[in-house]
Amino acid sequence: MAKKPYYITTAIAYASKKPHIGNTYEVVFTDAVARFKRMQGYDVYFLTGTDEHGLKIEELAKAEGVTPKEHVDRVVEEIKDICKIMNISYDGFIRTTDEKHEKVVQKIFKKLFENGDIYKSSYEGLYCTPCESFWTNSQLKDGKCPDCGREVQPANEEAYFLKLSKYQKWLEEYIETHPDFIVPESRKKEMLNNFIKPGLQDLCVSRTSFTWSIPVTFDPKHVIYVWIDALSNYITAMGYDPDGSDELFEKYWPCDCHVIGKDIMRFHSIYWPIMLHALGLEMPKQLFGHNWILFGEDKMSKSKGNVIYANDVVESFGVDGARYYLLSEMPLNSDGSITYESLIERYNSDLANTLGNLVNRSVAMTKKYQNGEIKAPTCPEAVDAELVAKAEETFKTVARLMDEYRMAEAMETIMSLARRANKYIDETTPWVLGKDEAQAERLATVLYNLLETIRFIGVILAPFMPETSAKILEEIGTKKADFESVEKFGALEIGNFVGEAVPLFARIDAEKFMAEAEAKMAAQKAEAEKEDEVFEVPELASEIAFDDFMKVDLRVALVKECEKVKKSKKLLCLQLDDGMGGRQVVSGIAQWYEPSDLIGKKVILVANLKPVTLCGVESKGMILAGDTAEGDAKVIFPDQSLPCGSKIH
Question: Is 182 in contact with 191 (CB distance < 8 Å)?
Fold first, then answer.
């Protein structure tokens, strides 16, 4: 029986510079889904690649004194190296400079024009080069690009436009009648309410002010703009051609899932469906919009000295240590966080202590008490049942969570089984059983249950931590490594012998590591910006209207409890009496305040800030503080006689 095809993609990476660990999350996430689907029996095609055209790349290449092609060739090799380092199992890697892609994009553009979906006009507006986006004055935020916050430049040029407005009603109805098209639900609501229902404006799809792109065949002074060029990769890579597509396209389209970051969801949920519909093609089955990995609570930036690259993490924590952290740290509905402190904590706690210790102890005891032989479990007791039930339930739970892209919860489910197995060791005390000859059968049963549970863990971990999975299965001497074998407990081969008890993960000395990491990041920051010893008063932000200020709800709140966040040296977790039932707030002031400095004090709370998760702790607001000449932060304490909940005007 032929395997059912499954096609999954990442967004293609922009080939302007080497991606940091936050950018790497998407390809690791997608790789785990692809590997999981392969083990479920699907015929998977996993596509990734690079977006290589545009004004930004043209300008970067000019500054470097190289051609745009030379620039992107270098960056593409860096991106491919990261994929190799992170053990990414992609089936296809597309570059938008591939000759085949460029020719098909030209045909797509021409077909849309001939169908009346693209027309020629002129554009007058404001342009953000880094985002490659046009904006009107009303769309700007504080006079700057609403997406990236950078300066915009006036632009006026002849251009071709895609008729988004023509398809607005169709798109709105399609999304509302296909509830699983955009996930999670919050992304769908955002796209509908913030972008589609307010009205779609026709999209600029050609440029004349730069040349580093694909020429329009019937109007050579125009080049095809990023949206049609980059988004088309998902079909050109599979052999789509308006004049006749390849078997690969016929087999795998429509795509099962586009995995994309929340910042480009708008392009994939508006521009891309309309392009496909205009071409007469089926819609992708699903768009999954993931959140970002932040450094603590900030975006990564060289000027802040907080950029972490995949090779940095792999060098210290191993490939699977890096993969485990990325996959376990990102909640479904909020941004994830990475700091070296939290990396060390999770690595030592989950991998070295919980998982590594479980495998090492179980294999070592089998060697010691049974000469390494796996013996039949002939002496069951009531205490075994809970472990067996949890093992059998684990795969079902993980499979369900993976269908919903709840990757972090899937990882926690697997680690929960490892913790339960460690508890089972304490409950059954095999080292005591090993001293009593009369308990040999009971000891054999306990060790079998442990090794079989470890096999379950090893098999289920394969899509997420492939190298670790292979090592685990080798250590316990089994070839039973398919998903079918973890549906029912007891497939571990009796009579086999375990291998050597080799530690899977060596504990990391946190103090030593942090000293080296902080020095490295300080050097990175010094390289990116000159340090100024004189305190400069920050420039005023752009003026805002009174109505905008009134949207910020400032309240007096009492700090009832306060403690340090375990995964961070910078964060404190405050329990506040806000006069409205109380709330929890996380603040990055731990380097200047001890919890005892704040307990019993009243602070000013931004009460209507959207909740976020920082280092795994939810924060519902923030407290106000000011900068000092020394670069410190000082919390602003209001008159302590003000009652909790008082509004600040």
Answer: yes
What DSSP element (H or E) covers 526? helix 510-528
CB 149 within 8 A of CB 176: no
d(CA 162, CA 112): 8
CB burial string 257-295: b at 16+ within 10 A, e below = bbbbbeebbbbbbbbbbbbbbbbebebbebbbbbbbbbb
DSSP letter for 203, please.
Answer: E
Query: CA-CA distance, 167 to 269, in Å (whole number)?
Result: 13
d(CA 251, CA 247): 6
The candidate with the shortest Cα–Cα distance to 196, out of 222, 221, 174, is: 174
Residue 290 has pLDDT above 50, yes or no: yes
Q: How far apart, in whole angstroms, are the C-alpha atoms of residue 418 and residue 46? A: 30
What distance in Å separates the CA atoms of residue 375 and residue 447, rounded to the nearest whole number?
Answer: 8
pLDDT digits (tens, 9 = 90+) for 435-471: 999 999 999 999 999 999 999 999 999 999 999 999 9
3-state secondary structure 58-89: HHHHHHHCCCHHHHHHHHHHHHHHHHHHCCCC
Contacts of 310 (CB under 8 A, 6+ apart): 19, 20, 21, 24, 82, 85, 86, 322
Q: What is the distance of C-alpha 148 from the center of its chain?
A: 19
Contact 394, 460 (CB under 8 A): yes
Tell me if residue 51 falls in helix, strand or coil.
Answer: strand
Residue with tokens 């880094």: 130
DSSP helix/strand/coil, 597: helix
SS3 154: strand
- Output the six-digit token pair for 115: 């169908």
SS3 content of the chain, % helix, strand, coil (to 5): 45, 20, 35
DSSP state letters, 407-431: HHHHHHHHHHHHHHHHHHHHHH-HH
At what angle are helices 68-85 and 55-64 packed, to 10 degrees? Answer: 100
Tens of pLDDT, residues 496-552: 999 999 999 999 988 888 887 777 767 656 655 543 333 334 444 445 556 667 778
